Amino acid sequence: MRLNRRNVLVGLGAIVAGGGGALATGAFSQVEATRDVTVNTTGDASALLSLDLDTSYNGISDGDGDAIVIQFDDINDEAVTKFNNAFTVTNNGSEDVNFSISADDVPNALTFEDSEGNDIAGTDQLLTKNGGNIVLSIEVDLDNNDIPTAEETITFNATSTAT
Question: Is the pLDDT of residue 102 over 80?
């Protein structure tokens, strides 16, 4: 075989390909590592997003401090009951956030209204940083809707507007 440019390039290519396969690329397909993680939580009073419930109403309570509980057995059946200014959502963080209530989670009998009487489920409400808030009323319509038969979970969302 004559030593020419093409043969030299083919030979060098074969050496590089073979060497790369033998020495590998330094990549890996799996890693397992143990790491410690610390998570701290705080109560609503000092949380980035706080919920302050007006517990003076009969029929709603704070569920031992971790939920808003509406007790349907304390509310008139076949009537519309409204809890004006039932709770306040406050942004204690350093960034503006969009606050919303997941509309898919809200039973037909409940409405969450802002100070102007608008149902806010499924819409974003801007909460400005460092104390921006929204005061919400809860309306329970048992005149046109059945009492929910099971415990319901409603999701409150807060998403930073920072980019």
Answer: yes
